[in-house]
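Hi everyone, sorry if this is the wrong subforum. Our group has a chain we'd like a structural model of before ordering constructs, and none of us has done structure prediction before. Sequence below.
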Amino acid sequence: MKNRFSYRKIIREVKSMDYSVKKEALNVCEPIFDGVVEQPVDLDFSLPDYCPDIKKILKCQICPQISSRNISGDKLYIEGNAGISLIYLDEESLSIRCCEHTSPFSVSINLKNSPQDAIILTKVKIEYVNCRAVTPRRLDIHGAFSIFTKVKCKKEKSVVCDIDGEGIEKKKTSTTCNNIIGLGQQYFNIEEVIDKGAKQPDIEYILKTAVNIELLDYKTLQNRVMINATANIKVVYISDIEYSNIETLEHSVLISQIIDIEGVQDNCPCDVNLEVLNHSINIRPSDSDQNNLLSFECKIGASAVAYEEKEVDVLSDVYSIDYESEPKYERVTLSSLLDKIEETYTLKSSIELEDPGITKLIDAGGDITNVKCFIKEGQVNFEGKINVCILAKDGEEVPFYAERLVEFEHGYRLKGEADSAFCEDNVTLRSCECRLIGRNTIEMIAELQVNANVYADNKYMSITDIFVDGEKPKEKDKKTALTLYYAEPGEELWDIARRYCTSVEKIKEENDIEEDKLQDRNMLFIPM
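Answer:
Right subforum, don't worry. Here is the predicted structure as tokens:
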């Protein structure tokens, strides 16, 4: 009977100390996949009949292009084509020639769950390419490229902001965080006919093409994000095969598109990302003998993450004045925009080539690769390499090909401070110009664009619940109304109040102070 009576007494006492936990719901952008898949390329093919025999291979490159990305259930499917571009010297006249071949690929990635309204981001990196001519018309190619993929979706997270109950003391930390309103992604195609102009030499054969997208600005309206961008197109082509004359054509196309995101309002901040998934540029047949027109087609993926800045109170500590209590904690990470980087800077470098020297620089350009970003001591550092591709003529007027890596580094001092910060390695090569300044020396001038949002990861130990043991009242000196305490500089009133089972507000009122953390040595009266 005694055990039964004690059990009932405990239940009755615990129930008499009711308290309620208040939570605030936040939306975060959570990556459900962030990884890389390597795709091999193994080909054995022969030159088309219209291509002359191979004397020497100058350059073989893989150009992967993505045709579709979609999620079905808990799987992500990526499909596309790996374009093989071969630049070589023909056997008859040692002229520069080009041959292209396309090989389809398909990738399947397992996800953690079946996300709704997810956005997909991809980047492609060429790992290696080995090419050899088995015969003057047959090629053996082995290589690989990697697809870096991120899948993000909106997820709700609850943060305990308050606990109400008799005799419960609370410590709160106020912070600002990004509350995600919504995510959206659109795919669209752009088409345009490009007129090279009368001043440009005729196009006999397209050697290589490149397209990059530059975001100009965006504007948010109700449930919509309007983006303005430009597609910068570069075409390198052969104007005279016999003399290996190569020309460059540049053109820009203005883009205006809308991304639908439910809940977006006017002047809502967004993270906007634009990707060129695939493109094609071909000579457009005409009635005249001149090749003046090019047909341009491009598929672009546009995504946006809309958010609002929100003030949140995080309950970081709690205790009961009257009874022994045990709080439960969990680590909470809340992100907020720390800084926005929009910078353009110029990089100059001299490239030395070995003998037999250069008599003419036919074409030279660059591709950015191996970009890394790290934050240290309040500075964002971007590091990477520019792969400079050089097509030139040697002392005997024979075309040759060479590649050189030029390293770059750029630092940006952050405007704010954070215990932990992160940003994307978003560096693009706006232009890369090369000129011959000596027998074996080429000067490269590159313009790089850095666009990155830097986020602060604020980490807290947050209270999730508290257990108050009604059977264990705290021992207090009931005979004394006040206790004298000599505080040291840097002590927090919260720690003192908890030690003496009182409240911070009572200590402040008794000693006529306002600060939560003492700056100097002080004598305090602690109300008991």
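For your construct planning: The first helix runs from residue 2 to 16. Residues 1-16 have pLDDT under 50 and may be disordered.
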